[in-house]
Amino acid sequence: MARMIGGRWTVAVAAAAAFLLRLSGLTRPVRADEAGFVLVARAWDPSPDSVYGAFFVDKPPPLLALFKLGDALAGPLAVRVVGAVACAVLVVVAAAVARLIADERAARWTAVGAAALVTTPLIDLVAVKGEVLALPFLVAAVGLALVAVRDRAAWPALAAGLLAGIPLGLKQSLVSAVVFIAVLFVASYLAGRLGRAELARLAGAAVAGFAIPVLATVGWALAAGVRLGELWYALYGFRADAAGALGEGSVGATVRRGLVLALILVVTGIAIVLVAYLARVRDHWRRDAPLTAAVVGLIACEVVAMSLGGSFWQDYAFELVPGTLVALALLAVRLRERLVLLMVVSAALSLVGWGFWNVSGRQEFHEYDTGVALAQAAEPGDTLVVFGGRADLQIESGLDSPYPYLWSLPMRALDPDLTQFRELVEGPEAPTWIVEWWPFDTWSAQGDLLEAEISERYVEHGTGCDGRTIWLRKGVDRPVPEPDCSP
Length: 487
Prior knowledge:
The protein is 65% helix and 4% strand. By secondary structure, it is mainly alpha-helical. α5 runs parallel beside α7.
């Protein structure tokens, strides 16, 4: 393995492997978040009091625009090709940054480590969201900031700021590259590597670059007639309401996901790399204090952003990848190589397990199967609401939803007493179908009242996978959905 990684084609092979392995996601149905983004994008109709119109989602407009474009060109799974390209580019960019801060050998090993992290099913090999798409921009911003300081050049600083700003259009919490640039510039000034005028020139260029994607989003909102307060709420204000909703619920599931995420960080090697770097931070500081300060700031920002996410889903681990790769390149040769081997073995074993599980037909797609069954039973003009929000089921059914929340968290935060849901059920726009994917009383004390109101106007009409109750509005004649819930 060590001799193979020493070859001059290592970076290219690692990038190709990352691309091809990520393309395996094309064989799997669209996931809940991806489906939700596509549905929001399809119905996108901005207004003064709504960024997206019919549906609410707390994600930036550039991300939804990307999903809208991909869906228009090649359907909901098109974004997975974009994700595969992003992962391949990450490998190349990570190698370039490692070459910049270390040497050619570090570049090759870091490239392999990057490929392992973006292709391990322990994090997520299939779905593509903002975290994955942002990775090459974040790492490239780090490299360009280093070039700007080394050459005292404004153009790399401008490019670094631009690339650091783009991830905020993919997920609004991805500010780690901004922190890295700020700390690096200030620390370089304090260390005497930059004069005051040079600091001002580089900082000004970086801020100008950062402003381009931010102002572009603001400009779009103004042109579309969306109030800036609504844009701010969708991106940041909603998080306070979401945190309150999460705090009111049971912490058991969150704690379990947090423990699983912590285990994933260890098994994939991410946590070990970060701990190994921080354990030797004094040595790194003596060799290059400005770089060390910037890397520590990068890692700290990533950890905080991941923690503030609140739900601790396993793909949160992607947020730590940029800091992990930079830290990996700076580790001592022997330690770096051992850790990369650990990453490769971990990714390889999980790929084998994931492949066997899928090829043998053991992988469940219950949301997909239920959605397909509903599509077969429904007639044109039917509508559907999935209680608890399963956008992957919704999109496979082919049915529109008259309820604005396609995810459970917006429902819990913005309709906590289920007032909107109950008004919908009792009103003229009541959906033809309701799938009780979660029991009605899961998150709200009004769940029993909602179930009683639904029972007055709907009848139980079969079950989805895992025994989920399907309700059909009274007076409507449709065949009973019969999902093939294999395995």
